[in-house]
Structures are given as C-alpha cells and as structure tokens.
Amino acid sequence: MKLHSIMLATALAAGAAGTIHAKEAANPLTALIGVWEGDKGTDVAPAQKSTGKAGTAAASPYFERMEIAAGPGVTNASEQDLVSVTIRQRVYRKSDKQQFHDQMGYLIWDQKNSRLIYSFCIPRGVCASAEGKYDKPGEFNLGTKSAFAETDFMKKNAKTNSVAITMKLAADGTLSYSEVTALTIYGKPFTHVDASTLKKVAGN
C-alpha cells in the first residue's frame, strides 16, 4: 500500500481543563475527517443457529458509510494531552440492503507518547479500547486483549478475547481497514474479520 505522509503536531496547547478540536492542531487524525463510503466490504462472522450451521464461517459482502468529525480534546491527570475525532460507522448487507452493524467511538491521538487509542461501542452491549504505537505515517495499528466492557450475556455467549485493527490511507486517497476479533461463541473460538476500502465523498 502506498502511504502518504501526514504532518505531525509540534505541540498540543490544551491545559489541565482545556478543550481543543482536531482541526485546531495538525495530527495524524486530521486527514481522516470527512464522510467515507465503500461497497467492497466483506464480513466473515459465525453463522447463526437458524442456519443449522451455528459457528461456522459465513461471509457477507457489505457496503457502508463512515462519518468522521473533529472531536474534543482533553488532558488526563494533568499530563496526558489528547485530541480526537468521532467515528460513526453504519454497515449494510449487499444481499438485502439491511443494516447489520452500527459502531460509534473516538479515535484518539496522544502526541507526547506517539500513541493512538480507539474507544468504541456497538449496540450489543460491548465496548472496547484498542491502543497502538504510531510509527508509520498514514497507518494506524491498534489492538487489545483486555480492554473490553461486555454485558454478562455477551461474556457467556459471545465473549470478546482480542481485537486488532489496521487502517491505512493510500496515496490515491482511499482508506482501507481490517478488523480482526477473536471470539468465543457457541462454545468455540472464532475469528471474526471485517475488511473494506472506502473513498471520501465529503469533507476536506
């Protein structure tokens, strides 16, 4: 993937109680701001019980819309200055045009430590915070094996064990991503994979 360089911030100006916005300071998140759409997604998820093949891999092509906007900035414990963008992702099956996934969260930049954080939730009673070092311009690699908040039902029936997320901005302006989630579902381990490529349709 041909990646383009993104200008990094030279300093963050937030005070202990300060609030800034992603557009007010150059950072790796700025290039993401806008509306993105794509129709090349593939979701590999465990088949439901109704199919008679519960837990086996079922692939579903999808299209989606991702809205990324400048978010708030905060300072944690008087020393960790963070800026963010908000992300709203809506995903639809190609087969029936029905939405099957909705995700909301914050992608966060910690410039001092060159780290990225993605905190997000889905309406299944599951939230996660993935982190990673920012060491390749235009590429975001995040993951976690522990930072999950799940309902008791999900812990028992569809427990999340780990998540790994990669996002890449290409020289042609496209945004590609993959999200690999290790689950325990129907009493067995399963690797759930989502991957797609999107184009910016609105924004800078």
TrEMBL record:
Boundaries of every THAP4-like heme-binding domain copy: 27-200
Signal peptide: 1-22
Gene3D superfamilies the record matches: 2.40.128.20
Top-level taxon: Bacteria
Keywords: Signal
Xref: Pfam families: THAP4_heme-bd (PF08768)
Protein name per its UniProtKB record: THAP4-like heme-binding domain-containing protein
Organism: Silvimonas terrae
